[in-house]
Write a structure and sequence with these properties.
mainly alpha
């Protein structure tokens, strides 16, 4: 990929990027489809039931059937919605979930780009999803949708800060905002060990950012019907849901790059016979997939928080801990230098 992009822009470069982007989009949608299936199966297992088991062997085609149903469903638009924003909101919510994959390095050679401030760009692009959620809640002309959207914005602001501050501890150790440089800095030891406190803060804040249980206050069925999704159906509803599940993999990939050594298979450097034969992107993908399924376990384990508990936990617990972790990392780095 870097070799193709090395020269000046031309038709070949454009065609290559278009094909690569379409392939990436197809793979991401395939992941989202079966992440929903795995989510439902895991919930069934943890709740002592079977989960999807009717369509296809072991229910493997259930999500495909659900997708066909959503595509064929009649699109009912309420009379008083703000139509331009109503139609645009699902696209704004989904597009950033796809774009962040263009920033992530999958191996030392497989990447779309190599931005010097890749981590900053990832955070900036991923935050745009909240704009789509707010647009959807506002344009629906429904009080429950608006309350859900406002909760989503408040939650994003509250948990984005400790997430960024915890990630800054990794930046201090690596000395760079470039995600490739951060992975290369973990050649000898993964950052999850010296940054275990930062990682725990990052993990909790990431689950809240992903709007997964127990932090799914913006679409709490018992309080807000469906939150900002109340007036959406068919393909528009599917785009919102796909965006949520795609972000699971994106956040798992970011955690892999920051804390779990990226494409390096062993946590303390070195190698074992046969490991070098496996391409680096496979190690990266396996770690990202495993991490992306952790929120499913949270969903089956923890009860939903109240909105006041949600905000207090971020501002009074996660933020102070992340700041202390960053301060300790800076002191360590200064004395180590």
């Amino acid at each position: 990929m870097p070799g193709v992009l090395a020269g000046p822009p031309n038709v070949t470069t454009f065609l290559w990027l278009t094909v690569a982007a379409l392939v990436l989009l197809s793979l991401i949608l395939l992941y989202a489809t079966y992440a929903i299936y795995v989510h439902r199966k895991l919930l069934g297992f943890m709740q002592s039931r079977l989960g999807p088991n009717r369509v296809g062997p072991y229910g493997l085609l259930q999500t495909i059937a659900d997708a066909v149903k959503l595509l064929a469903k009649e699109s009912i638009i309420p009379a008083q919605v703000d139509r331009p924003l109503y139609h645009l909101a699902p696209v704004i919510a989904f597009a950033p979930a796809f774009l962040v994959f263009l920033v992530l390095p999958w191996s030392s050679t497989l990447r779309f780009s190599d931005f010097a401030v890749g981590l900053l760009l990832y955070i900036a692009v991923s935050s745009l999803t909240t704009v789509g959620v707010l647009m959807g809640g506002w344009s629906s002309n429904n009080k429950w949708s608006l309350i859900g959207a406002m909760r989503s914005v408040a939650q994003m602001l509250a948990y984005e800060i400790p997430l960024i501050v915890s990630a800054l501890g990794v930046v201090v150790l690596a000395g760079s905002l470039n995600l490739t440089d951060i992975v290369e800095a973990q050649r000898k030891v993964w950052f999850v060990f010296p940054q275990i406190v930062g990682f725990l803060v990052f993990a909790v804040a990431a689950v809240a950012e992903l709007n997964r249980s127990p932090f799914d206050l913006s679409e709490a069925e018992s309080e807000l019907i469906g939150g900002y999704l109340t007036e959406y159906g068919g393909m528009r509803f599917a785009l919102f849901m796909l965006g949520e599940y795609v972000y699971l993999l994106a956040m798992g990939a970011l955690a892999t790059a920051l804390y779990f050594g990226g494409w390096y298979p062993l946590p303390i450097g070195g190698t074992l016979p046969g490991l070098d034969a496996v391409p680096g992107w496979i190690w990266f993908l396996l770690k990202a997939l495993l991490l992306s399924f952790v929120p499913f376990w949270f969903h089956a384990t923890f009860p939903r928080m109240r909105i006041d508990q949600l905000m207090v936990f971020s501002w009074k617990v996660l933020l102070p801990v992340s700041l202390l972790n960053l301060f300790a990392t800076i002191v360590y780095r200064a004395f180590a230098a």
